[in-house]
Amino acid sequence: MNIIDCFKRKFCKEKWEEPYDENQRQYRETFGVVDKFLLNYVGDKFIVFIDRDNDIDWVENTNFEGFSEEERRQFYAVIAKLDRAQAYPCMLLNEKHVIAFKRILGASYVAAFQKSFDGVDETIEEAKQYVRHRNLEKARQIYLSWAGIITLIALLFLLLIHYLPDLSFLSKEVSSCVVWGISGAYFSIWQRYEDLLMKGFSTRRLLALEAISRLFIGSIAAYVVYLAYQCQLIFTLLSNVDILYTCSFLGFIGGLFERFVPSLVESFANKNLTESNS
After folding, report:
1. Which domain, by its residues, includes 65?
2. Same domain as 205, residue 102
3. Residue 94 pLDDT > 50
4. How far apart are CA 177 and CA 181, in angstroms?
5. Within this chain, do residues 104 and 173 fall inside the same structural domain, yes or no?
6. What does the pLDDT average to over 225-246?
7. Confidence class of residue 7 from pLDDT cuts 50, 70 and 90?
8. DSSP letters spanning the chain
9. From edge to edge, which strands make up the β-sheet containing 37-42?
10. What is the pLDDT of residue 192?
11. 86 and 172 share a domain?
12. What is the pLDDT of residue 110?
């Protein structure tokens, strides 16, 4: 295979509607189908394939000749179970992974035509396990990508504030605090990467919204910590340090430990309540 063929395979969409050889043309004519991916076929008896919608489909031309009534009942029970399994949520996955999932299930469709009804549950569980892992990987990728892009934009914005005189009307202290709060929240996301409670059933939009919300909360937490410092409630030892460095540090701490802020506010409220009662 030359470099041009490799390039075409990578970047050009395959025209799978057109038969790529004489064998495919013949079995398509025999069964009257256009398959996207062939799973198996036997002569002119049956064919199992993946169609244009990435669903497993099949055609049987012998009216189940050779099947007893009990075997036919078992066959349809197995097919119903497999049909439910192939509806398992995999909206985050790309086409390559979806087809891999359907190929795992397709083995049991083919086995059912050969009157082999054992092992269907194991195949279904294997296919679902594959999708669960791929869903989780994709969900984490989307979540971290959005968080990373927003953090990078925030840091670039901070650089612009420092080096462009046209943006001098913005407070460098507050901006540094908020941006470093976003950075702290992103660092927190990476720190807890393995603990992200995701199942991969969310939509891409919801995952993006979750990532942005987490960074937004980090920026709010950072600003609250900055206000607490200005009120001389915390970190009073930093009063002799340059205010810009102090704001950056406080912002990062606030974003990194966003749970610290509700505890701080609650502690301050309880203290005031106790003093007022006494």
Report:
1. 14-134
2. no
3. yes
4. 6
5. no
6. 85
7. very low
8. --HHHHHHHHHSPP-TTS-SSHHHHHHHHHHT---SEEEEEETTTEEEEE-TTS-EEEEESSSSTT--HHHHHHHHHHHHHHHHHTTS--TTS-HHHHHHHHHHHHHHHHHHHTT--TTHHHHHHHHHHHHHHHHHHHHHHHHHHHHHHHHHHHHHHHHHHHH-GGGTTS-HHHHHHHHHHHHHHHHHHHHTGGG----S-S-HHHHHHHHHHHHHHHHHHHHHHHHHHHTTSS-GGGGGS-HHHHHHHHHHHHHHTTTHHHHHHHHHHHHHHHHHH-
9. 37-42, 46-50, 56-60
10. 73
11. no
12. 94
Is 160's pLDDT higher than 80? Answer: yes
Q: Phi and psi at residue 246, in whole multiples of 5°?
A: -60, -45
Instruction: Specify the pTM.
Output: 0.74
Q: Domain for residue 229, yes or no?
A: yes
Separation CA 18–CA 39 (nearest Å): 17
Whole-number Å distance between alpha carbons of 224 and 268: 13
Tell whether 167 and 112 lie within a shared domain. no
Residue of 273 and 110 predicted with greater confidence: 110
For 252-277, write each residue's pLDDT tens digit: 988 887 666 656 555 655 555 555 55
Bridge partners (DSSP) listed for residue 46: 42, 60
Mean pLDDT of 184-196: 78
Look up residue 255 and give its amino acid. Answer: G
Check whether residue 179 and residue 226 sit in a common domain.
yes
In whole angstroms, what is the distance from residue 213 CA to residue 219 CA?
A: 10
Residue 10 has pLDDT above 80, yes or no: no
Instruction: Determine, yes or no, domain membership for 149.
Output: no
Closest to 35 in 3D by CA, of 55, 49, 18: 49
Q: Maximum CA pair distance of the chain?
A: 93
The count of domains in the chain is 2
Bridge-partner residues for 42, per DSSP? 46
Q: Which residue has the higher pLDDT, 48 or 171?
A: 48
β-pair partners for 132: none
The predicted pLDDT at position 127 comes to 95
